[in-house]
Write a structure and sequence with these properties.
Layout (H helix, E strand, L loop, with lengths): L1 E6 L3 E3 L4 E3 L4 H10 L8 E3 L10 E5 L4 E5 L6 E6 L5 E5 L2 E4 L7 H8 L6 E3 L4 E6 L2 E6 L5 H6 L22 E5 L5 E2 L8 E2 L16 E9 L4 E11 L11 E9 L4 H8 L4 E4 L22 E5 L4 E5 L6 E7 L16 E5 L4 E3 L2 E3 L4 E4 L4 H8 L6 E3 L14 E6 L2 E5 L5 E7 L15
């Protein structure tokens, strides 16, 4: 049984780890993965068809805890403890919920102090005590209903609510959220709660990494030139424990930039990945006479939602991959969502010998492909992409579909959302020498 400390309006955790309001989904998953054997039977709940309108939820049924994430920002918004019998809870070192201690109204008041008037829902027979950043919900027996309806004395403390021995309501559910007010949602909500505001990313979750606010794709009429990345990170000179604040950073990375220049602008990548050699190369007649070619390599920036591909010979940027991190995709949870904005000028088309000009199309991480393809009039058939971790396993999320347009490759999921965008530099347009301009 987990023994956890509640910090209202902030977190739920212990000395080794904690779930902090505002932390990214991937950081919460990393905590759970580090506690294999302690936290078991974890479920991820999401809407396949409406991933932006329904909360993203991590459910831990064996511990009675549910983590509810904002579906757009993918950061932790509400922590819900929906089965109090499966977990021990403390506040400021004082245990108020355990197999030996029942979380009754009197116990909650003793531990947390008096509160403003509670709220009683006569339809659900549910009494709620709300503190700043923390709420407790008590199911009320019908024989005590009049006590809550007609005795408002608990407005200045709960002492006026007199229950017979063993008759005091016990907490059935509690929630930790940001702010002073919390709205209870309908039972159809995946987490059963909504309305809580979303805090900023906590400084404790920065972890000396750059995090992306916005990515502007720099383009000429029909070609990509580079990316302008608006980021934030920890402020210089002061540690987080000393109250250091975050600071904003803006960098431009272009095609042809060297690996050293990219590292100077964005820092060291989280991982470097080398592309696999062509497996059919061994069947070529010249395979035995020629040394194996060097492999192109990626710089993976997971918190930016970005991959950068470098040419093995020149070590210059030749491709960008922007990830949208939608649940149901093969790479989900590897990257943070890249908040990009890509403006594409459609190709001019000849209709009955008349050249038709169309307006620019703005594409973001939240655009649906059916809208984008209609505006760009993409007519070609897609390439079907089916990923698998090995030759003996299949991808449970199904195939994605890749569409090419100008110097862009759109990877589209079956629900019509864009999974990733690849921006590449055509072979004929690459400069012979490095372009090291980084603003």
């Amino acid at each position: 049984m987990l023994d956890l400390e509640i910090v209202p309006e902030r977190s739920l955790g212990c000395d080794a780890w904690e779930f902090v309001l505002g932390m990214h989904f991937s950081q919460s998953v990393a905590i759970i993965q580090s506690q294999v054997g302690t936290i078991r039977g974890v479920q991820v709940l999401y809407s396949d068809q409406n991933p932006l309108s329904v909360d993203l939820v991590i459910n831990m049924p064996q511990d009675g805890i549910r983590l509810i994430f904002d579906p757009v920002a993918q950061r932790l918004r509400v922590i819900e403890i929906y089965n109090m019998k499966l977990v021990k809870l403390r506040y400021s070192g004082m245990c108020f919920n355990s197999p030996e201690i029942s979380p009754s109204i009197e116990q909650v008041e003793h531990c947390f102090g008096a509160t403003h008037p509670g709220l009683y829902d006569s339809q659900r027979h549910l009494f709620a005590l709300n503190f700043r950043g923390l709420s407790f919900y008590f199911p009320v027996d019908s024989k005590f209903e009049d006590m809550f309806l007609f005795q408002p004395g608990y407005a200045h403390g709960l002492g006026s609510l007199q229950f017979p021995n063993g008759g005091s309501p016990v907490v059935s559910r509690s929630t930790i959220y940001y702010g002073s007010q919390h709205q209870q949602a309908s039972s159809s909500s995946p987490g059963g709660v909504c309305g809580a505001p979303l805090p900023e990313l906590p400084l404790s979750c920065y972890r000396h990494q750059l995090h992306l606010r916005r990515c502007d794709v720099l383009r000429s009429a029909t070609a990509t030139q580079g990316l302008r990345l608006h980021m934030f990170t920890e402020g210089p000179g002061r540690s987080l424990s000393e109250g250091g604040a975050g600071r904003s950073v803006c960098r431009v990375v272009r095609f042809g930039s060297s690996a050293q220049r990219v590292c100077a602008a964005l820092g060291a990548p989280a991982r470097t990945y080398y592309k696999a050699d062509d497996k059919m190369r061994i069947h070529r007649p010249t395979a035995r006479r020629r040394p194996p070619p060097a492999s192109d390599y990626f710089f993976n920036y997971f918190t930016l939602g970005l991959d950068i591909l470098f040419d093995a010979r020149t070590h210059q940027v030749k491709k960008f991959v922007l990830h949208t991190n939608y649940p149901g995709h093969y790479n989900f949870n590897m990257y943070h969502r890249c908040e990009f904005e890509l403006t594409v000028q459609p190709d001019k088309c000849d209709t009955n010998s008349l050249v038709e000009s169309r307006g620019a199309v703005c594409i973001t991480a939240y655009s649906k492909w059916e809208v984008v393809s209609r505006a760009l009039r993409v007519a070609e058939r897609p390439v079907v992409l089916n990923r698998a971790s090995s030759t003996n396993t299949t991808n449970p999320f199904g195939s994605t579909f890749c569409y090419g347009y100008q110097d862009i490759i759109f990877e589209v999921m079956s629900n019509n959302y864009i999974a990733s965008i690849t921006l590449y530099q055509p072979e004929g347009s690459r400069p012979r020498y490095a372009v090291n301009s980084i603003a």
